[in-house]
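Suppose a colleague, Dr. K., hands you the sequence of a protein chain of 314 amino acids and asks what its three-dimensional shape might be. Before reaching for any lab equipment, you can write down a predicted structure in token form. Begin with the sequence itself:
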Amino acid sequence: MTAVAVLGGTGLIGRHVLAALARPGTPIVATANRRPPFEAEGVEWRQVDLTALGPARAALRGARGAVICAGRLSTAAELKRDPVGSVTTTLRIGINALEAAAAEGVERVVLVSSTTGYPPGEGPKLESAMFSGDPPGDWFGVGWVHRFLEKQLEWYCRLQRIGAGVALRPTLVYGPHDDFDPASAHFVPSFIRRVVERERPIEIWGDGSQSRNLIHAADVAAAIAAVLQDRAPGFAAYNVSAPASSSVKQVLTTLVELDRFDDAEIVYRPERATGAGALDVSAAAFSARYGWQPAMSLRDGLAGTLDWYRRSAG
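The predicted structure, expressed as tokens, is then:
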């Protein structure tokens, strides 16, 4: 019997989940697809395409618990390039993963959802606000996919085909092993790459005041690990966020300072402002239920990610 299966073990969140769950003698299965597997003690790798149901069932066979963090990341850059592909791929993977978990009798499922499902409006958003209006603008499709998958998990729990299901809604996740591809990366890894490459000038689309709530992948993994240790039945959904948001300008100037890019030139393009507006969410409910608090400060998290990228790119 496998203790936990991690679907999407090679991704940003998945890699940190495997590190958080590592225990001597604790069997873990992890799936890989587009990214290759890596050495991890106690992990059995399964190379599977989760867009098909059969492989998803094979990946979860014998597992007591499952973490579903597989899918295609829908960043603003990716949605601009292709507004449909990443969204429909995530939907297919999520449907198959949850159907497979129900069919294989998995006792506890943690679904990594998203705050993109929240409608616009003044915050901080509580969990109950998720379905009070449509997700905004370009995030309509992305948000509704995550909403649907949460409801699918809740449905299976009501049918008692999955004993317990928890949907976690992290804000903007960053950290080592992020996607640094210029065509699809969100703004944090994009800034890191440009700082390390000493790009001149570095452009900010907008005036830099746009705020984002950044949560380190290790803190998200710690939240997932806490949920897996619980034994409460039924379904629940929680936000996972940092205590405060940061401006885009603050992130870039911190990276420039950390990497000693003393002659960096930052150019603001107010006429090209893009992306979703600021979204303030509250993780108070999750903190109260599990005693979880983010351990990584923004400065330490950026420093560690910058150092990892510099070493990896070299």
